[in-house]
Write a structure and sequence with these properties.
241 residues
């Protein structure tokens, strides 16, 4: 309901993912609930979800319904998360605004005269407006970080594991657009209203299911201790590095 209200206000949702209630009932019957059990998660347009389109903001992709979930969606579901909407992007995603000729302009919920940023602008607008508590965006040169900044959120572009743009059909979730440069590493990452939510999402994603489904991701679990220390490097440490 909240997502609908936010969408009416700022036009940030492009599709509602079907089967959420059935998925929740299935999860309730499982003994192991997962780190993201019951959490509704919004998903950026170009991330593949079974039975839905990944448009990239371009008409040519509207007829291509995806036959299976991308790896990140599979892992989110494995951890008990419930992907429930797909969110708007700028056409081709190579833009710091959030508008295309299919779904129109997304507005910033904090100020309708301003842009939510891009390219994960629909995510930024929906989360900042209160319609989602956790979302998955993607970032090459700021596409998570810009909307997070514009909308007053927290966002993380993870380290570019493996080779640049490796596993586009899995960790990068079948982007509708080719990489702009082989020297740029595009990554999916979480967006939320606080750092703890980002940490929980990363801890959930860096699990055995991810490592098995995507061999380009090094099998290194999320290090909670490093995050909790959070101290700036000392001058001596900086010199050594």
């Amino acid at each position: 309901g909240e997502a609908l209200e936010v969408n009416r206000e700022v036009n940030c949702v492009i599709d509602f993912i079907h089967g959420c209630e059935a998925q929740l009932q299935k999860l309730k019957k499982q003994k192991e609930k997962g780190l993201l059990y019951g959490i509704p998660i919004s998903i950026k347009d170009h991330i593949n979800c079974k039975g839905h389109v990944s448009s990239g903001g371009m008409v040519k992709f509207l007829g291509q319904v995806k036959e299976e979930d991308s790896v990140i969606v599979q892992v989110l579901k494995h951890q008990g998360g419930i992907p429930f909407v797909k969110t708007n992007i700028p056409q081709t995603m190579i833009n710091y605004d959030c508008s295309n000729l299919i779904f129109g302009q997304t507005l910033n919920p904090l100020n309708h005269q301003k842009s939510p940023g891009g390219s994960s602008g629909g995510e930024g607008a929906l989360i900042a407006g209160g319609g989602s508590i956790l979302g998955i965006g993607s970032d090459v040169a700021g596409s998570i970080r810009l909307p997070s900044s514009f909308c007053g959120l927290c966002g993380l572009k993870p380290t570019g594991w493996g080779r640049p743009w490796a596993s586009a059909q899995t960790w990068l979730a079948a982007s509708a657009c080719p990489p702009a440069s082989a020297g740029l590493t595009g990554m999916l990452g979480p967006m939320a209203r606080d750092v703890d939510s980002l940490a929980l999402c990363m801890k959930a994603l860096l699990c055995q299911e991810m490592f098995q489904l995507d061999p380009t991701v090094p099998p290194i679990p999320f290090d909670e201790e490093v995050r909790l220390r959070g101290n700036p490097m000392s001058p001596s440490a900086q010199q050594q590095s």
